[in-house]
Amino acid sequence: MRSTFFGLDIARKALAAQMRALDVTGHNIANQATPGYSRQRAVLTTTNPYTVPGMHSHTGAGQVGTGVQVSTIYRLRDNYIDYQLRSQSQHLGKAAAENQTLDRVEGIFGDLQGSGLKTAIAQFFNAWQDLSRDASNETVRAIVQQRGVAVADMFRHVDSQLQDVVEDINHGISLTITDINSIVDRIASLNAQIQTSELGGKNANDLRDRRDLLIDELSQLINVHVFENNGQLSLVVNGVSIVRHESVTHMKLSDAPDQNGIHQVVWINANGDEGAPVRATSGRLAGLESSRSKTLSYMDRLDQLAREFAEAVNNQHKQGRTLEGEAGSAFFVGLPDPDNPDGIISAGHIYVNDYLLDEEFGKGRIAAAAAIDQDGNTIAGDGSNALAIAQLRNKLLFNDTATLEQFYEGIIGTLGVDAQHALHLLENQTLLVEQLEMRRSSVSGVSLDEEMTNMIQYQHAYNAAARLVTVIDEILDTLINRTGLVR
Q: Exposed site from 118, 310, 399, 469, fewest CB < 10 Å?
């Protein structure tokens, strides 16, 4: 025969189980808006049954139930959706970084309100055209000087802005590396905490949520693959384990720049030395590196444009004659170089020759004429060399492949295609990630309506268990106080 207090034990277990289930429900409600939180469920199972002793009764389970217990508390999570979301977040991080950079570069090259490089070049040649019609006019010569200074300033301005973009990208890469190293440190720390917490067979749900949230953040920064075995988690980037249980591998910028002057992102070996290049393929880090390479390529083409432009003008200007009948000099110069009297010209280093900017004699030194008379003087009104310089705008340069305008438009065209591609990719990835986040939210997100229903269910079960205690108490009172009385 079972103990008289057997029912009280069942009621006690019921009260404890329903209260634990209510605690889990309350925890879900409290974290409804917590980023990265996965809703939890208390799994109620029967406790081991009681077998009534008997001569011929078997010892199998299920003869007399002994109550209920919370066997585990688990979080609702779909690992496949997590995998998809992290994979697409990597592409989103790259697209966002590229789009941000290319949009900025487009603004630098764009001729907004007629104030860009293309406009400056056109105005420069227009000034030479005007000079060809009135070669002796000092005012027109002054305009040629001003337009020359303006176009050189614009080249340097665009180059300076592109340099700023590259510097900002470098700074962004440095910050991204710091973020990655910080995240992997925190993930390794959580790995240790989770392992310690789950040694007793319990689920460290909240710690796992924090770790998964960090992995989501990391996947936006770099291409990372997640592996978990028996609760031990490892993160791998291009075959390198950046997190392996509690150990980590950090990355840094190389101490020495490469042949292009760029500090590459490299791994840090266990002994602290520089390791192999990281070579990110997706994530924000890859997007920054890719957009930096593209920006540098635009700068190279801008340098090529500046050199061709300056050399063409210089060569033609040297063939002309000044007002005094002297041979023309270089119109544009660059960085001083012992092997090149005109200097090394690039977009960042192109200037009008100071010889032509002399306040007193500079205007007369502009070689607008093409010939001199028998006395060595410039033929009055001759502006044929100025016309030849003006016509350079329509001459095929760059090994007879394109005019200056066509080459510049080629740079703009390439930039436009790259920027449009990055924008479309960003829009597509944003939509895809949002859809995956909605799918994950449908699985892991907290529904207040559902939690309220569960709360009412557990409340009624708790009330019923409490009523069971009252009933058994009354039975025991009858048994103890009202039976066996002698009158």
A: 399
